[in-house]
């Protein structure tokens, strides 16, 4: 697993570049500041956790993009649904997102 940090203001640009190269991109948000961490450590009675709390918000891949800011003109997302009955099969093939 490779990790890279990018500024929040340019996240869409970097995420789209990594996704275009085939990488999965995870968005992790920081839930507290360094001051908040210190206050939490004081409340816990000296049992200090040295890590600032963070939370995984979402994971982006080529197949899960629906945000128009991350899609390029040549990218599209397709879905295929299959309905099977005793008599016949129904196939649904749909382009669900295209930046146009």
Strand order of the largest sheet: 1-2
Distance between the termini: 34 Å
Q: What low-confidence regions span 5 or more consecutive residues with pLDDT below 50?
A: none
Shape: elongated
Which sequence of SSEs, written as H and E, runs from N to C? HEHEEE
Residue share in β-strands:
25-35%
Strand segment count: 4
Overall pLDDT level = 79
Number of helical elements: 2
Biggest sheet architecture: 2 strands, antiparallel
What's the helical proportion of residues? Answer: 10-25%
Structural class: alpha+beta
Q: Radius of gyration, Cα only, in angstroms?
A: 21 Å
Characterization of the model:
The chain has 100 residues and is α+β, with helices and mostly antiparallel strands. 20% of the residues lie in helices and 32% in strands. Strands 1-2 form a two-stranded antiparallel sheet. Strands 3-4 form a two-stranded antiparallel sheet. The longest helix is centred in the first third of the chain and has 10 residues, at 11-20. The radius of gyration is 21 Å and the shape is elongated. The mean pLDDT is 79.
Précis, in short:
The chain is of the alpha+beta class.
What are the key terms here?
100 residues; alpha+beta; 4 strands; two-stranded antiparallel ribbon
SSE blueprint and pairings:
Blueprint: H1 11-20, E1 25-30, H2 34-43, E2 54-60, E3 76-84, E4 89-98
Antiparallel strand pairs: 1-2, 3-4
């Amino acid at each position: 697993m490779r990790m890279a940090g990018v500024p929040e203001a340019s996240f869409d640009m970097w995420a789209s570049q990594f996704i275009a190269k085939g990488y999965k991109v995870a968005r992790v948000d920081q839930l507290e500041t360094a001051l908040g961490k210190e206050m939490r450590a004081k409340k816990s009675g000296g049992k200090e956790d040295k890590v600032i709390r963070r939370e995984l918000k979402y994971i982006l891949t080529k197949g899960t993009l629906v945000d128009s800011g991350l899609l390029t003109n040549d990218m599209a997302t397709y879905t295929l649904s299959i309905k099977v009955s005793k008599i016949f099969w129904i196939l649904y093939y749909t382009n669900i997102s295209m930046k146009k």
